[in-house]
Amino acid sequence: MSVFSAQKITENVYWVGAIDWALRNFHGYQTSRGTTYNAFLVLGEKLTLVDTVKGAFYDEMMARIASVVDPSRIEVVVSNHAELDHSGSLPRLRESIKPLQIVASPMGAAALAEHFHWDASVTEVKTGQTLSLGDKSLRFVETRMLHWPDSMFAYLEDEKVLFTNDAFGMHLATSERFTDELDHSLVEWEAKKYYANILMPLSSIVKVLLKKLPSLNLDFEVLAPDHGPLWRKEPHQIIELYDRWATAKPTRKAVVVFDTMWQSTAAMARSIGDGLRHGGASAILMPLEGSHRSDVATEVLDAGAIVVGSPTMNNQLYPTVAEVLTYLKGLRPVGKLGAAFGSHGWSGEATSRIEEQLKEMKVELAAEALRHKYVPTTEVLEQCFAMGARLAEKLAQRVENSGE
Ligand code: FEO
């Protein structure tokens, strides 16, 4: 008996991926619960593997395949995405089993060549093309920039499984293979975190794909992403969530993100939070001493406002605040209100630097910056409270205007 076994997904599809329980950092995104690299074995007349796993997990994948079939019988390997967490095992696999065919999108074929500097012949497939596996067939949909230029879906019509690569995934290591076997709020949070930190800047492309999806005649019952559990009961749940996240309608939620040197900026943050709540908004306070940038991004995804506070240090932003603003700028949140605040000693540049960054992010400055020298007085905290209440009012107006 193998130490690793495959898990059956549908009649002729097996999960043969790997579980990375230890991963805590994925490109700067804090993966607090690890991840999985999903690969799928399709038992067609032509035995087919859809995607591989990160190189370090090659043996685990091979053992799972071997629990079902002799890996050397695999004839076709589909590479939906060239990023190394999915293609890292491909060169070794090719060397070992010598598949008759490696299949990728045209951009995928180029990306694989640029990664592996190999002489492999790769069959290029475009949107709408099918590949016969003998008694079954795969149909392909290029999903450029979701999230790389080469990304692609593969659809196994015979078993109604759509292999979606990174899309609809999450970084979550579990022994269960399906979302319906897990706590729903955990699944939704991790899917949201994944969307916020990877797909938020590509929301306009997500919207185009979702609009196009019905016309692609993909009558799927299982959505099989390459990270985390698969969606089999009501797979449309995650599509509806993607639609909501990509659309980013106004909400009455504000994220107050800040760091503090001597608790003065923190006191201002708490008063702004109280003012927001008093005005009917939901306030999420995120002190950067205890909040990771990827959790801030997750909360920002469905927030209507970002309120940023920083002490001034050596004429600059506090380093943690500068870091989170740089990170958020890359994720391009849309349609947010914003404001700046902070305590300083003698020069006090932080609030104007925050405003510059928010403007670059196309955040609409909705309140005058609040800056105060040293420890805030009761009067200053009242001004902070009033700022929060004013922002809450503006959020409410926006929600009302949007008809939500
Ligand atoms: Fe999971 Fe873009 O790799």
Topology at a glance:
Blueprint: E1 7-10, E2 13-15, E3 18-20, E4 25-26, E5 29-30, E6 35-37, E7 40-42, E8 48-50, H1 58-66, E9 76-78, H2 84-87, H3 90-97, E10 101-104, H4 106-116, E11 122-124, E12 130-132, E13 137-142, E14 152-156, E15 161-165, H5 184-199, H6 203-212, E16 222-225, H7 236-247, E17 253-258, H8 264-278, E18 282-287, H9 293-301, E19 305-309, E20 312-313, E21 316-317, H10 319-331, E22 337-344, H11 350-360, E23 364-365, E24 370-373, H12 378-402
Parallel strand pairs: 8-9, 9-10, 10-11, 15-16, 17-18, 17-19, 19-22, 22-23, 22-24
Antiparallel strand pairs: 1-2, 2-7, 3-6, 4-5, 7-8, 12-13, 13-14, 14-15, 20-21
Helix pairs in contact: 5-7, 5-9, 6-7, 8-12, 10-11
How would you characterize this protein structure?
The chain is an alpha/beta fold and 404 residues long. It folds into two domains: 7-247, Metallo-beta-lactamase, Chain A, CATH 3.60.15; 254-397, Flavodoxin domain (Rossmann fold), CATH 3.40.50. Helix content is 35%, strand content 23%. The protein is built from twelve helices and 24 strands. Helix 5 packs across helix 9, helix 6 crosses helix 7 (236-247) and helix 10 (319-331) runs parallel beside helix 11. It is elongated, with a radius of gyration of 24 Å. The N and C termini lie far apart (56 Å). The mean pLDDT is 97. Bound molecules: MU-OXO-diiron. MU-OXO-diiron is lined by residues 81, 83, 85-86, 147-148, 166, 226-227. The site of MU-OXO-diiron has 9 residues, from helix 2.
